[in-house]
Every structure is written in structure tokens, then in C-alpha cells.
Specification:
The chain is an all-alpha fold and 488 residues long. The chain is built from 17 helices and two strands. The chain has one domain: Amino acid/polyamine transporter I, CATH 1.20.1740. A two-stranded antiparallel ribbon has the order 1-2. The protein starts with a strand and ends with a helix.
Length: 488
């Protein structure tokens, strides 16, 4: 027998089985929430796998500066984003805010698009993690050489279990992983600093003469993408203690910490290679250039530990992406846009367990298709990460428009001029440029295959259009559900 309860968020009546709670539950504090969202950024993956690429293809030795600029843009967006969270206390985050500011049709398009973003992230990182584990076991431990998908299946099962449980469990796992990652990066930074790099420490990477070396646009695009995850602060509103204090602290803590960590480590990496040789070596060796500096300055043990944690860092990203995708699906279920059974809350764990199971199943099916079709794991990973980046930046661009519109319409801007107008304008310009540059350079995710790039871009914006069309249909056929779009 079923009963009717009210899901988190005003005006959302959903059916659930007896014993289901009325809201997701959790007791995350500032540090728990910080660890959850920082883990999504995968700092060790950024340091070892992205920074060398940014030095090679972005603005060269000026890359430390571009992290400061990217952090400033994201901080501006976070300022207006958190102002909106104080005014509109709903857990739907971008989905809810775009709906409130630009209307339910655009809002549902944004909701579908962000669900795609987190789903593709969880799906794409699985073969990457499986391949990383396989390489470590066979290469470092001299163990058996097994297909990537066997390791990926074990990771998938672990993520599914954690997604089913209370959010606090995932947070604790990710806190341990993140602390170890950061420890490795800090040890690396200290060793390079103490030994003075290759030729003595130089502040040239922060000099205005190098700010616009190479491709500043490409560097900024990648830098902005490295500050993701702060949407989770609002998405987990029902699962944190004292959200009015916890959410801002965690969000700004993430941005400040990531900016200092990435800019500082990039500066030391450039010095470890030598300012004059950093770009050439990064271009020639790619990510192996960072491995070489770890070996030279930290030794074999530090490199082996970093390699292990690179795997666990990927695991943390999958856990985060899975959790957020499940909560997007939960919110869509609470609104009645998809089956309301997906908005059921586990009576013991307070988790969106049905939505979590659906996400796990979809991720498994997508990867099984890749295995059966014989698609290269890394090609699949690159393509899906490209989709995730483009969708996230596009929806943030929309949100930068939606929030000031809502604040003006409801006269909630007074006394908050910077958060209501200045900050979102800066974010709008930054994200708008990033969207254009992301589309222009999307072929880098598909190995230069133009038709595949066009197809994947079409999938991104086709998903948005599908959400828009679904909202139009609901407006005609189910106006009661239409009114609830965006947790309204």
C-alpha cells in the first residue's frame, strides 16, 4: 500500500511507499560538503593529467595566471549563485534557478542538460578508471593483464553501493581519498620549492609579459572547467547541517583552495622543467612530463603513490557524478516530470535510492555497449568528458542570465548590487566566451573527427531542446505537473 508524502521543496506531492521520508537526509558539515565537492574536481587528475596539457596547448608558462583568472570568474558566478540560494531555498540548483528566472521550459531544458552532464561524467570516467587500474596492476605490480572493463565493473559496483547508502558514507570515503591526493601534491610542491626547481625559482610565470602567451582562450576554457562541483553545495541542501552557513563556506572554500593549489603547483611544475624548456617538454611528452618531475624531485615512491591515488581520484569523480545525477533524477521525479517513484527516499539511509539504481543501470548499459561495439576506452572517455564540459559551461551561462532576471523581477536585489548585477555580468562574459571556445575546439575531444564532434554537440543541445519540448507538452496535457517544474 502506498501513501502520499511531500518531497523536499515546496509544492511537490509525490507518492512513496510507507516509511519513506519527506526529504533526503544527511548531516554534512562544512568540511564534509567541501570534501564531497572538491573530490569532483579530482585535484590529482588536474595536476598530473591536465596542467601539462594546459602548458603545452594553452598559454604556456603563463598558465598559473590563467588559473587565477578562471578562479575569479567562477567566484563571481558563485557569489550570485549563493545569493540566489539564500533567496530561493530549493535543492534543484541550476535546474531550479533557470526555471525561476527564464521560465519552466528553459528550466527543464537546463535540467535535462545537467543530468546529461553528470551522467556522461560518471559513464566516461569508468573506462578511464578501469584502464588506470589495469595499467597499475600489470605495469607497477607486475600482476595479470586483464581487460579494462573487468576492473571497471568492480568500480561500478562499489559506486553503486555507495550511491545507495546515506550521503555521509560517500563523503567519508571521498574525504580520505582527497586528503591523500592533496598530501601527494603538497609533498611534490615542497620538494620542488626546496630544491629550487631546475634552474632556481623564477616568478616569470606570473609576469604580465607571459599572461597572454600561446592561446589564452584555450587556457581559460580549461581553467574554468577545473573549478566544477560547487553546484553540489545547493543540490545537497537537504543533506547538510545549517545550509545557510555551510553552503557558502564550502563553495568559496573550494574555489579559493583550488585556485591556490592549481596556480601554485603549475608555477612549481614550470620551474621543475625550467622556464625556458617547460612548453617544449610539455608539448613533446604530454602528461609524462609531470610524471618525470615527480620522479626527479620526489623519487620513485612518491611517483608510485601518485599513480595509485590517480586511480582513487578517478573513483572519487565517479562517486560525485553518480550522486549528483541521482539527485537530478530525484528532483525531476519529485516534480512529476519523470516517474514519481524515482523521488522515493530510503527509509533508513535517507538517500534517493531508486534514482541511484537507475543511474547505476544506465551507466552499466552505456559501458556494455562500448565493450560490445569494441570502442576504444580512451576515445570514449575523451568524447564523453567533452560533452560533460560543454553542457556544464552552457548551463552556467544560462544561469548567469536567469539569476539577475529573477532577482529584479522579485525585487530581491536591493542591498546586494554586486551579487545581483556585477558578479553575474562578469560570469556571463567569461562563460559565454568559454562556450564559444569549447564548441570551436570540440574536435580535440574526438581526435579531430569533425562529423563526430558535430554529432556530440548536437546531442548536447538536442537534449536541451528535448527538455523544452517536454515542458511544452506538459503545459498542454498536465498543467499541474508543468507548474511544479523547477521545484516550484
Amino acid at each position: 500500500m502506498s501513501t502520499t508524502t511531500t518531497a523536499s521543496g515546496p509544492g511537490n506531492t509525490i507518492p512513496s511507499t510507507a516509511g519513506d521520508s519527506t526529504a533526503l537526509k544527511g548531516s554534512l558539515g562544512t568540511f564534509g560538503l567541501f570534501f564531497s565537492i572538491m573530490s569532483f574536481n579530482a585535484p590529482l587528475v588536474v595536476v598530473m593529467g591536465v596542467i601539462p596539457i594546459m602548458v603545452a596547448t594553452g598559454n604556456g608558462i603563463g598558465t598559473p595566471f590563467v588559473f587565477v583568472v578562471g578562479g575569479a570568474i567562477v567566484a563571481c558566478f558563485a557569489t550570485t549563485f549563493l545569493r540566489m540560494s539564500a533567496v530561493l531555498q530549493r535543492p534543484g540548483a541550476f535546474y531550479a534557478y533557470v526555471s525561476a528566472g527564464l521560465g519552466r521550459k528553459v528550466g527543464l531544458g537546463a535540467g535535462f542538460t545537467m543530468l546529461l552532464a553528470y551522467f556522461t561524467c560518471a559513464t566516461g570516467y569508468l573506462p578511464f578508471a578501469g584502464s588506470s587500474v589495469g595499467s597499475f596492476v600489470s605495469g607497477t605490480l607486475n600482476g595479470p593483464s586483464l581487460p579494462w572493463y573487468l576492473w571497471a565493473f568492480l568500480i561500478w559496483a562499489l559506486v553503486g553501493i555507495l550511491g545507495y547508502l546515506r550521503i555521509d558514507v560517500s563523503a567519508k570515503v571521498m574525504a580520505v581519498i582527497l586528503c591523500l591526493e592533496i598530501a601527494v601534491v603538497v609533498v611534490y610542491d615542497i620538494t620542488v620549492f626546496a630544491r629550487g626547481g631546475a634552474d632556481g625559482l623564477s616568478v616569470a610565470p606570473f609576469s604580465p609579459a607571459h599572461w597572454f602567451d600561446g592561446s589564452f582562450a584555450t587556457g581559460l576554457l580549461l581553467a574554468c572547467a577545473m573549478f566544477g562541483g560547487y553546484e553540489m553545495t545547493v543540490l545537497f541542501r537537504d543533506e547538510v547541517k545549517r545550509p545557510e552557513r555551510t553552503i557558502p563556506r564550502a563553495a568559496f572554500g573550494l574555489i579559493a583552495f583550488a585556485m591556490v593549489l592549481y596556480a601554485g603547483t603549475t608555477w612549481l611544475f614550470v620551474n621543475a622543467l625550467g622556464v625556458d624548456d617547460a612548453v617544449a617538454m610539455s608539448t613533446a611528452e604530454g602528461t609524462a612530463a609531470f610524471d618525470a618531475t615527480i620522479l626527479e624531485f620526489g623519487g620513485r615512491l612518491l611517483l608510485d603513490v601518485a599513480t595509485v591515488l590517480l586511480v582513487t581520484s578517478s573513483l572519487a569523480v565517479i562517486i560525485c557524478a553518480h550522486n549528483v545525477a541521482a539527485r537530478y533524477l530525484f528532483n525531476l521525479g519529485a516534480d512529476g516530470v519523470v516517474s514519481r517513484s524515482l523521488a522515493a527516499v530510503h527509509p533508513r539511509f535517507g538517500s534517493p535510492y531508486r534514482a541511484s539504481i537507475v543511474v547505476s543501470t544506465a551507466v552499466l548499459i552505456a559501458n556494455l555497449v562500448v565493450v560490445i561495439a569494441g570502442v576504444d576506452a580512451m576515445v570514449f572517455y575523451g568524447a564523453l568528458l567533452g560533452i560533460a564540459a560543454l553542457t556544464g559551461i552552457s548551463v552556467q551561462f544560462l544561469t548567469s542570465i536567469a539569476i539577475p532576471v529573477y532577482l529584479i523581477r522579485h525585487d530581491k536585489w536591493r542591498g546586494h548590487v554586486f551579487a545581483s548585477f556585477v558578479a553575474p555580468f562578469v560570469a556571463l562574459i567569461g562563460f559565454g566566451w568559454s562556450v564559444v571556445m569549447s564548441i570551436d575546439h570540440f574536435s580535440s575531444h574526438t581526435g579531430g573527427v569533425t562529423w563526430l564532434s558535430s554529432l556530440l554537440i548536437a546531442i548536447v543541445y538536442g537534449t536541451f531542446i528535448s527538455g523544452f519540448l517536454v515542458a511544452m507538452r506538459l503545459e498542454r496535457t498536465k498543467p499541474d505537473i508543468y507548474q511544479r517544474i523547477g521545484r516550484q
